């Protein structure tokens, strides 16, 4: 029996943006974050208002793209978008607010950084953050909405660059490679060196190390 052909991957579109733009009668941005799960470094977010008449080809969920492809798309998105903005929440803010509310703060800052302020935002996920415009949450949004996918790329590339800078500032942990996430080299460095100021000290594994020290 012949196998049924695999379903082709569905790429994000501007369908959600089109409907929401018509409803609110104004600009709509896509918003996404990067870095909620790592043991070290800030959380980042980006907001993007795309120009439907000048879309860079190949925009997709940042997780579905190679590092090289994200790096190539980043300047294309920035050059062709109506507006884009990136925001961060620091390790200190993550510790003070918790990661969920720090993510909302980074998103707020990303929208505030837009040169054109949106009337509404499509936000990846299902949590309704308090943002400076109306929001519509979209579960799996980075695979459905081109604006959210573009934001996911900008948030990821911006955070990756910052983690490379932190690698130079705090050598030995391998931040440039794993970007602060759990990895064998990261675990080994923590056992040898202990946490540095870039680590999220309230995170379980980091907290356990500090308690054992």
Describe this structure in words.
The chain is an alpha/beta fold and 213 residues long. It is built from eight helices and five strands, in the order H-E-E-H-E-H-H-E-E-H-H-H-H. It has a five-stranded mixed sheet. A hairpin with an 8-residue loop joins strand 1 (28-34) and strand 2. Helix 2 packs across helix 5 and helix 3 packs across helix 4. The radius of gyration is 18 Å and the shape is globular. The model is unreliable at 1-5 (pLDDT under 50).
Structural class: alpha/beta
The quaternary structure here is single chain
Shape: globular
How many helices in DSSP terms? 8
Bin the strand percentage: 5-15%
Rounded mean pLDDT score:
94
* Poorly predicted ranges: 1-5
Order of helices and strands: HEEHEHHEEHHHH
Q: How far apart are the termini?
A: 62 Å
The biggest beta sheet is recorded as: 5 strands, mixed
Using only C-alpha atoms, the radius of gyration works out to 18 Å
Helix proportion range: 40-55%
> For the largest beta sheet, what order do the strands appear in spatially?
3-2-1-4-5
The beta-strand count equals 5
Set out the fold topology.
Elements: H1 15-24, E1 28-34, E2 43-49, H2 67-80, E3 83-89, H3 91-97, H4 99-112, E4 120-124, E5 134-138, H5 146-169, H6 175-178, H7 184-193, H8 204-212
Parallel strand pairs: 1-4, 4-5
Antiparallel strand pairs: 1-2, 2-3
Helix pairs in contact: 2-5, 3-4
């Amino acid at each position: 029996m012949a196998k049924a052909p695999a379903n082709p991957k569905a790429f994000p579109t501007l369908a959600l943006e089109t409907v929401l733009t018509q409803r609110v009668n104004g600009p709509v941005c896509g918003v996404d974050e990067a870095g909620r799960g790592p043991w070290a470094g800030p959380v980042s977010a980006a907001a993007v208002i795309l120009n439907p008449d000048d879309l860079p080809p190949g925009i997709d969920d940042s997780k579905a793209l190679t590092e090289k492809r994200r790096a190539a798309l980043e300047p294309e998105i920035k050059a062709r978008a109506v507006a884009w903005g990136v925001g961060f929440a620091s390790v200190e803010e993550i510790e003070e607010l918790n990661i969920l509310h720090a993510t909302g703060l980074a998103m707020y800052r990303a929208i505030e950084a837009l040169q054109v302020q949106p009337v509404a935002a499509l936000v990846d996920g299902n949590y309704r953050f308090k943002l400076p415009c109306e929001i519509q949450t979209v579960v799996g949004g980075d695979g459905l909405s081109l604006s959210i996918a573009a934001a996911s790329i900008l948030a990821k590339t911006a955070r990756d660059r910052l983690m490379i800078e932190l690698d130079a500032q705090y050598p030995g942990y391998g931040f440039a490679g794993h970007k602060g996430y759990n990895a064998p080299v990261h675990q080994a460095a923590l056992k040898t060196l202990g946490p540095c100021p870039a680590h999220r000290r309230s995170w379980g594994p980091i907290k356990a190390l500090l308690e054992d020290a």
